[in-house]
Amino acid sequence: MRKNITPQMLEEIISKCQEAIQRNPRNVTAHHDLGVAYMEKGDVDAAIECFKKALDLNPRHVSARYLLGIAYAEKADLDRAIEQWKMVVKADPRHAHAHYFLGKVYTLKGMWDAALYAFKKALESGGSHSLIYVHMGEVHLAKGEMQQAVSAWRKALELNPKELRARHNLTAAYLDMKQYDKAIEEGTKALELGSDHSGLHYNLALSYLAKGQYGNAEKHLRRVVEQAPEDAAARVNLGEVLALQGRLDEAVKEWQRALEIDPRDKNAHYNLGLALVQQGRVDEAVGCWRKVLEIDPRFAPARNNIAVAHVFRGDLEQAASEWMKALQIEPENLNFILNVAELRLRQGRWDEAAAYIDRALSIEPNDQRALMLKGIRQIRKGDHRGAAESWAAAAGDDPNFALKFAAVARACLNEKLLDWFINQEGIQPTAREAARGLRSLLEADRKS
After folding, report:
1. b or e along 379-390 (b: 16 or more beta carbons within 10 Å of the residue's beta carbon)?
2. Residues 6+ apart with CB under 8 A from 440
3. Contact present, 157 and 173 (Cβ < 8 Å)
4. pTM of the model
5. What are phi and psi of 145, to 5 degrees?
6. 130 vs 45, 67, 100, 137, 154, CA distance in Å?
7. Three-class SS of residue 46?
8. What is the distance between the alpha carbons of residues 56 and 329, in angstroms, rounded to a whole number?
9. What is the pLDDT of residues 235-267, one digit of tens each?
10. For the chain, N or C: smaller number of CB within 10 Å?
11. 380 contacts 411 by C-beta, under 8 angstroms
């Protein structure tokens, strides 16, 4: 109800309109105004009858037809609303409000191009309300046209810098585009304008998290949890931020609370597994990850972690089996492919290792780990030239090359093999230095 119309005033208007109709049943204005009054009162069905009566008396009454469309929309009868508004813009092509509402309804029906056309006609007809641009941006977003969406929302802010919906949308858009500083700028402006929307706090938290500003991320996630204590996903994310700050016990409490809210939250189970590993409770961690797979058999990271646990236990074939299952889900995941390749190298199954290494290099020809493993396999097969080429490409100017790959070198090579390689003629200096670095680490291990 309009602020300046009290219920008593509204009843008086209704009474006067009804009296006017009694005096003259063909009074189009009275039927129209009575419909408006009923709309104000919230009696949409009565309003529809009044507008229809006005149109029976005068089919060219644009306002009655426009408001009949509004009434149908209130009843969620979108097709009838469209029918009325199309007749309005046919009678009055510059009826900006009818074009605008056609755009809104076309948006609800997923008719993106029709919606954009209607919004543009609203602008051409003199409509300059910032909400038109807000809606246009949301249609562009639905069509996957992010840049056009951002441009529309920026135009909305030119018309009305206090348009919160545009600020909210831009915060989310910049987050999606990984433009975190801009996301934080827009979100902060929305907060300054008085917004306290949980979605805004969530997007700000994710933006700060991406920038490594964990304290700010925690602040906004705590606000989300205050507003929605039963939001399991928010508690999972809060736990992750706490864990990144080294506050593992607090993180575990948030994940446990998330599971009390939603026992099937796979991310909470997964994160609890990671926490248990840090506490040395590997068997319990595996139990958490198996629970994840009961919920979502295609959650590949859980399979990967179970495989790693099998490696620590020395059960290499079980590890390989888990990685094979993970690769069925993500066949181009380099980490999974190279985990199997390294496992086969450790087992001395050189040809199987080579197949996985080649598979990885077909996806990413310059992958450092793949080239390192290829060099190990070539040394084991006596191909010093091939190994030199692989290791020269892998090591490049990376000063930490030897430290990165010390574990696999310890498992698959020895000082004698490295001495043989180092003493070969025609080896690129970079590859020779990489081998010397690895040999020094193996020698230090032997002497310790």
Report:
1. bbeeebeebbbb
2. 402
3. no
4. 0.80
5. -100, 75
6. 31, 22, 12, 11, 10
7. helix
8. 63
9. 999 999 999 999 999 999 999 999 999 999 999
10. C
11. no
Distance CA 28, CA 20 (A): 10
d(CA 398, CA 411): 22
Structure-token match 């906004």, residue found: 220
Across 219-294, the runs of DSSP E, i.e. the strands, are none
C-alpha span between 121 and 108 (Å, rounded)? 18
Long-range contacts of 39-47 (CB under 8 A, 24+ apart): 39/67, 39/70, 39/71, 39/74, 40/1, 40/2, 40/5, 40/10, 41/1, 41/10, 41/14, 42/1, 44/71, 44/74, 44/75, 45/75, 47/71
**Nearest CA among 349, 356, 281 for reference residue 316:** 349
Angle between helix 334-346 and helix 368-380 axes, rounded to 10 deg: 20
**Six-digit token pair at 52?**
């229809």
Residue type, 305: N
Residue pLDDT, tens place only, 305-332 = 999 999 988 999 999 999 999 999 999 9
Which token pair is 270? 């997964």
Q: What is the C-alpha separation between 186 and 183, in angstroms, rounded?
A: 5
- Tokens 């858009």 locate to 173
One-letter amino acid of 90: K
